[in-house]
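>> received
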Amino acid sequence: MRLFNKVAIIGVGLIGGSFGLALKKKSLAKEIIGIGHRQKSIDQALKAGAIDQGYLGVDHLKDADLVVLSAPVKEIINILPKLKNLTGEDCLIIDAGSTKSEIIKIAEKHKLRFIGCHPLAGMEKKGPENARADLFMNSLCLIVAPKKYNSQDLRRARKLWEALGARTLILNSARHDRILAFTSHLPHAVVFSLINCLKSEYLKFGAGGLKDTTRIGLSDPLLWRDIFLTNRKELLEAINTFEKSLQRLKSLIKNNNDGALNAYLKKSRDKRNVL
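>> returned
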């Protein structure tokens, strides 16, 4: 079931490469081109079969009917203003960024045919060599539309992600960034901080618990730098909330309050069982 004739993926890493592979597997596009900064990434995406052609510049977009921005958030913010003059008037633009408020503001300012998308399907690994056609299967994709949007574009975006095997949920940008600050950005911040507080000599004693807990610490630093800085208000609020919870735990341990400590730990376990 073809949905698009020509799809241009800007950023052919893990998400962009997986998007291309999934489009091909489902026969959703006639042609897929990839655009990136490095020839190595383009070559890897071509080798993986994620794209049909690859380019280093943001050209070749005029006849695309879908542009997918799967670059780090700040790159998406820098690219968006240029797309008005590089794409046709019928071209739909979507992204896969992990924060939305700043991206939506730019899209609204330049009056782009844009629908924000956030597939909750990433991994700590990166690059097109780790791309998977089934990455989005049974995942949740959050859809974030500008205040003024074309209802047909919203339907096309949802239909696309659902064709790739994802469920979709519509949120506004403020709610998206608030929720993701707690469920995604804070966990990464905590893990990065945990790893940095460990003495190097202790690492050889790390077993399954430490490795499992800190798996996401292997994520791309530049990607997460952009996420933290473009959602800093909500992330700082989430960190404040976490600090209060950690202080509560510290107090229970300090005061040898075994009953309350057990209740605190049990509450945490019960919440975790919901996931």
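>> The chain has a mean pLDDT of 95.
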